[in-house]
Predict the structure.
Amino acid sequence: MSELVTGEAVVLGLRTARLPSRALARMLDWVVYTVAFFILFIALAMGLSDVESAAATAFLLAAFVFCTVLLPTLIETLSQGRSLGKIALGLRVVRADGGPIRFRHALVRGLVGVIDFGMLAMPAVITSLCSTEGRRLGDIFGGTMVIRERLPQGARDQGAVPPVPPQVMNALGADLVALDLSAVPDELWLSARQVLSRMHELDKPVAAALGDRLAADLAQRTGWPVPLGLPSLVYLGAVVMERQRREWERASAAAYAAYTAQQAQLMQQAQQQAQAQGQPMPAAVPGQAQGQPVRQLGYPQAPAAPQPFVPQPAAPPAAPPAAPPAAVVLTKPAETAPAEAPGGGFVPPA
């Protein structure tokens, strides 16, 4: 275990990688780099068949340097300290202060690695055994170290928050709401969040000691001592969650106030335009009558304001339905018989 001190004066107990796991990761990396070198060797041998021996030797030497120094440097830089072997074993290269490595750290590790692994890896083995953090020469000169990023299940369970009795958790609500968090500096909040986010990576005694120290400092600034029977890490988590809840409420209130002001401004502009054009006033919300309440998400709907009663004139009585017009019957005039002359003679019609 390595006790790293961050910029916020927080001691982080990280599990450093030991010689067996580092040796196995290095062997896996060697297999990959050896395969890459043989591929380059075959390609150069096929492409440099007509080149002089000195030039071919120079190309082969450049390929060897690329596979042993430049390729590991590029892989560790792009993956932030994780090679293929380290990924398989859950290891990572970090700076001496716990931060991610840069190109210069990986380059120094690669250059000094020629010395570490040049003589059957004896310099690396001896240096790693003598170092309390398992660092080889490349780590010492580069200011780096290798940590165990993926912990066993038992180690993760040791850093878990212990269970809290339900009666203790029920008693925290009123006390948390009444806390005065204005005297707590941002550095203390940052330290508490870092410890809570990385407590599964810490040893149990280290996590408990950090939790006790930060909880005592937080209790002194807030005036609320740690309740009896409540673990310090649970106390830190409860206070941090209360601060986040208050920040969320303030942000929500500010966003709602800005939205309300924007809607009021848009409504005022619409009313001014309607007055200028001689049109009726638009409703506050499209499709909603004037005077009706506006429903906002997350807020209860206000009842509609009562409208004054205006008497309406009585409707005139309905007129009886008109009778249908009488049917017109056309009659055919009667035919008159021709008159007969006296004595049986014919008389023409008049």
Residues 7-11, 155-163, 293-302 have pLDDT under 50 and may be disordered. The longest strand covers residues 91-95. The first helix runs from residue 19 to 47.
